[in-house]
Structures are given as C-alpha cells and as structure tokens.
Amino acid sequence: MSLTELTRAAVRTIQPSATVAEAARLMCEQSVGALVITDASEVTPLGIITDRDLVWMMAEGLDARRATVEQFARSPLQTVHVSDSLSEATKKMRASGVRRLPIVDQEGRLIGLVSLDDILVLLGRELADVAATITTELEHERRIRPVPAGERERGRQA
Fold it and tell me: Which residue range forms the structural domain that includes residue 14?
C-alpha cells in the first residue's frame, strides 16, 4: 500500500517567519495538529510544527507572540516519497521519533502529510476487509457444506 491515498487532503502550511501564536491560531482554526513550514512558494517543505511542539513551548515559558516557528523546526526535515509504502513511512517515523511526515513528489514538492493516525486508520480498514472476506467465505462454506445431523447434536450437548 502506497502513500498516494494520503495526498488528496490539503496540507496546512505556514511560513518560517510566522510566530508560534500564529501557528497555534491557524491549527485551531483549521482543526489540525500540525503545520508544514514551507518557503514562500508553499511547495518546498522546510520543517514541521506540531501541537505537541506548541505544548512544549508553552511549558518552557516561551513568548508565543515573539518566537517564530522556524526556531523550532526539526533539522534535517524527514520526508517520505509519494511512492513509498506505509511500512517505509512507519519505519522512518520510528527511526526519527516523529508521528508525522510530509509527503513529497520526485521534485521534492509538498503534496501531502502522513500521520501515524492515518496509517492506523488505513491498516484498520485493511484488517476489516480481511475479516469480512473470512466471514463471507465461512458463510459460503456453511451453505454449500451443511453440518451432518449427528454433529449438530454433539454441538448442542457441549
């Protein structure tokens, strides 16, 4: 399974010079937990700022109206390529200690964002599909191969 499914939703971005307060306001308005820091073109990812970063900054007593998001961008920025698999994205998250990765195309342009939550949802759907297939197969098997009467009696006694 590739990351292509996750490139359809608009990625929320912010400029490096924006303040932490602006980032918090934008996250709140857009109901998102992360913003990708981009250059002026809004296609080249430079960093990422998350709701967890904001909590840490507030706990440290930083002035959110003066501190800029670029001061807190992780370096180097970890990204995944759109053709990478969910497994590759998960491995990169684990190795980097992050929960979100910008998705880029061949030219390094931002085209999506994958989160650990997204991966869990997709894997959950896959598991549900497998479970439905097994259930359907078992129901089909019962219809074409009825249980003999003697076995039904033994099952009731157990």
Answer: 3-120
Alpha helices, H only, the chain: 20-30, 51-59, 86-96, 116-144, 149-157
Q: CATH number of the domain that 107 lies in?
A: 3.10.580.10
- DSSP conformation class of 41: T
Whether 135 is in a domain gets the answer no
* CA distances (Å), origin 117, targets 37, 135, 136: 20, 27, 28
Q: How many residues does the chain have?
A: 158
- What is the domain count for the chain? 1
Please report, in tens digits, the pLDDT of each residue of the chain (158 residues total): 678 777 667 899 999 999 999 999 999 999 999 999 999 888 999 999 999 999 998 899 999 999 999 988 777 899 999 999 989 999 999 999 999 999 999 999 999 999 998 888 888 888 888 888 888 888 888 777 766 666 656 655 65
Q: Is 128 helix (H, G, I), strand (E, B) or coil?
A: helix
Q: What CA–CA distance (Å, rounded) separates 14 from 45?
A: 10
DSSP code at position 38:
E
